[in-house]
UniProtKB/TrEMBL annotation:
Ranges of the TPR repeats in the UniProt entry: 117-150
Coiled coil stretches, renumbered: none
Key word Repeat present: yes
Classification via SUPFAM superfamilies: HCP-like (SSF81901), TPR-like (SSF48452)
Species annotation: Blautia argi
Keyword Hydrolase: no
Pfam families, per database record: TPR_16 (PF13432), TPR_8 (PF13181)
InterPro entries (UniProt xref): TPR-like_helical_dom_sf, TPR_rpt, Ycf3
Protein name: Uncharacterized protein
Keywords per UniProt: Repeat, TPR repeat
Gene3D superfamilies registered for this protein in UniProt: Tetratricopeptide repeat domain (1.25.40.10)
Length: 332
């Protein structure tokens, strides 16, 4: 008899294969699998949800929006947790399309069902984009109320920074420093806060403490601190140490590429990018591919830069900085 685990040797369903591809960020295959599952009438709502997530992962947010709306239309009234989940994904897709008013409305609908911190953050971000500063501050205040999670404060700062409101965002960083550091991870996060406040000596001190207690991610930010402090040799030393750590090799190669660029060693920088891409680290791939374009520009090889830009935009169509850069390349 077969239960949830399925029969030994049985073929996985299209939905199961789609879920596996989604987890591995193989978005094109995942969409195809989920579409097959829908045709088979298998996990229809969850398949539309998966399609939406896959489109979001590729930066195609208009199609993601359509998928999430379709999923919501098929969701039963009793499936409250699923509805809440879909509303949040929908709000995120709306935000990334610049539909800030609709995003805020969707978040408000979500918040009627569940007071979710992420929804307050997203709605606050939408309000900030609409220049509704008091509403944004009210939502962000709810996010950090009683929070000892440094990421809450850093995420809010980054939104203000993206709106060129660094000073307003810095007040949240100052609040983050009131959290008493108790662990190596806390010192690492404290160092990141000081880094964004451009207090590099304090950042170095906190990050070194985290590194001394073997909190490995501190190496990456130590490299960034030394780069900003115009100490390229110290930065390169940190990035080389990243190469000795599993999970940080791509970060290390990306940092070394940047250090090489600063020293105008563009051939060396390109070599580091190529090595970094071989690590197949999805979290660092975008930065590596973008830096590859910049290196070709620095070498005045605009033909290669254009080719790489077209490949990049196919993967990350929502990258506004890259889109602006592409306009420049088209004039070369």
């Amino acid at each position: 008899m077969c239960f949830l685990g399925g029969c030994k040797g049985s073929e996985p369903t299209a939905y199961e294969v789609g879920t596996e591809h989604l987890e591995k960020e193989k978005y094109t295959q995942a969409i195809e699998n989920f579409q097959n599952a829908i045709q088979e009438g298998d996990h229809t709502v969850q398949s539309w949800r998966g399609i939406g997530i896959a489109w979001s992962g590729q930066g195609v947010f208009d199609k993601a929006e359509e998928a999430f709306i379709t999923a919501l239309g098929l969701t039963e009234r009793s499936e409250k947790a699923l509805k809440t989940d879909l509303y949040f994904y929908l709000a995120d897709a709306l935000y990334h399309q610049g539909k800030y008013e609709k995003c805020a409305e969707t978040c408000s609908e979500l918040l009627k069902q569940q007071k979710k911190k992420d929804a307050y953050f997203l709605r606050g971000s939408a309000y900030l984009r609409m220049d509704e500063y008091k509403k944004a501050d009210s939502d962000f205040s709810r996010v950090v109320s009683g929070s000892e999670n440094y990421e809450d404060y850093l995420d809010i700062y980054k939104i203000y920074k993206s709106c060129e409101l660094n000073a307003d965002g810095s007040t949240y960083l100052e609040s983050a420093l009131e959290i008493k550091a108790k662990s190596p991870e806390d010192y690492y996060n404290q160092g990141r806060v000081y880094y964004h406040l451009q207090e590099y000596e304090k950042a170095e001190k906190a990050l070194k403490k985290a590194w001394e207690e073997e909190y490995i991610p501190a190496l990456v930010y130590l490299g960034k601190v030394y780069t900003e402090a115009q100490q390229p040799q110290e930065a390169a030393s940190m990035y080389k140490k990243c190469l000795e750590q599993e999970g940080l090799k791509a970060e290390g190669y990306n940092g070394l590429a940047y250090c090489a660029m600063l020293q105008e060693d563009y051939a060396g920088a390109l070599s580091y990018v190529e090595k970094g891409l071989k690590e197949k680290d999805a979290q660092v791939q975008q930065a590596l591919l973008f830096n590859e374009i910049v290196i070709y520009e620095k070498q005045m090889d605009f033909t290669s830069a254009k080719e790489k830009m077209q490949e990049y935009l196919e993967l990350y169509p929502a990258d506004k900085e890259a889109v602006r850069e592409n306009y420049f390349l088209q004039t070369r």
